[in-house]
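Supplementary Methods S3. Complex input for the heme C-bound model.
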Amino acid sequence: MRQYSCLLLAPLLISALAAAQPAPAPATTPSATAKTATVPNTLEQRLAACAICHGKQGEGTLKNEYYPRLAGKPTGYLYNQLIGFRERRRSASPIMTYMVGGLSDNYLHEIAAHYAGLRPPFPAPVTRAPLAKLKLGETIALKGLPARDIPACTACHGGPLSGMLPAIPGLVGLNPEYIAAQLGAWRSGSRNSTAPDCMARIASRMTGDDISAVAAFLAFQVASPDVPPAPAQAAKLPLACGSAP
Ligand code: HEC
Ligand code: HEC
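Predicted complex, serialized as C-alpha cells:
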C-alpha cells in the first residue's frame, strides 16, 4: 500500500520538479518581472518535492519507511547516486528513478552540491542493541576482519566515519536498517557502483550477522555534523573503488 501511494504521488512530484528546472532567462517584460517577484525560483524552492521525503535540510526522515540523510555527504558521492538511479544501476527504489528520470547531468550536479553543503543536526543515536553485537560491529568498523578479507570501514570512510572527498559518504547519522539494506542491496546486485565495485566485494564477504552488527554500531555513534569529510586521498584505499578513484 505504501509503495502504491508513493507511485501515485510520483508523477505529481516529477512534474513539479521538471517544470521548475532552470529555464533560460525570461525576456524582461514588466509581466515577467512581476511573475519572478512573486514566485521565488530558488533551488531550495525547486527541491520542495525532495524535502517531502528527505527533509527540508536533507536531514533524512523516518516515517513509515526511512528516507536517507543527504546533508553533508560529498557532492561527488551524491551526484554518482543520482546518476545511478537515473541509469538504473541502483534499482531498489523505483521512486528515485522516477524522481530524477528527466533531469540533466548539470542539474543533478547542482542538486548534489546543494545537499553536500547543508549541516542539519544528526538524529539521536539508536541505542537498542545487545553489547555483544555492538562489540562485533565495533571490531568490523574499526579493525575489519582480516581472516575474511574484510577491511575496516574507517580505512575508506575516514577515522571519524565522516567520509572522504570526493565521493565516499559518511556513515554516521543514518538509520541502521538503511545501512543494512544497502549492504544487502550490494550483495543481491540491486545496487551497483562503478567497477571495480569495492562495496559489492566487501558486502559479499559479510554474513547477515556481520551486517546487522556493523549497522547497529554505526547507528550507535554520537557524532557531530560539523566534522567534514576527510580531504581527497587522505588515506590509501585498501581496495580499488571505481566510484572513488
Ligand atoms: C517518495 C519519497 C522520495 C522522494 C520524493 C525523493 N526521494 Fe530520494 N530517496 C528515497 C528513498 C526511499 C531512498 C533510498 C533508496 C535506496 O534504498 O536505495 C532515496 C535515496 C536518495 C539518494 C541516495 C542517498 C544516499 O546516501 O545514497 C539521493 C541522493 C536522493 N534520494 C536524492 C533525492 C532528490 C534530489 C530528490 C528530489 C528530486 C529525492 N531524492 C526525492 C525516497 C525519496
Ligand atoms: C575500499 C574502500 C571502502 C571500504 C573499506 C568500505 N567502504 Fe563503504 N563505501 C565506499 C565507497 C567508494 C562508497 C560509495 C559507493 C557508491 O558510490 O555507490 C561506499 C558507500 C557505502 C555505503 C552507502 C552509504 C549510503 O548513504 O547509502 C555504506 C552503507 C557503506 N559504504 C558501508 C560500509 C561499511 C559498513 C564498511 C565496513 C565493513 C565499508 N563501507 C567499508 C568505500 C569503502
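Residues 6, 13, 17, 49-50, 52-54, 67-68, 70, 73, 78, 81-82, 90, 92-93, 95-96, 99-100, 111, 169, 181 surround heme C (ligand 1) (CB under 6 Å). The CA atoms of residues 63 and 158 lie 29 Å apart.
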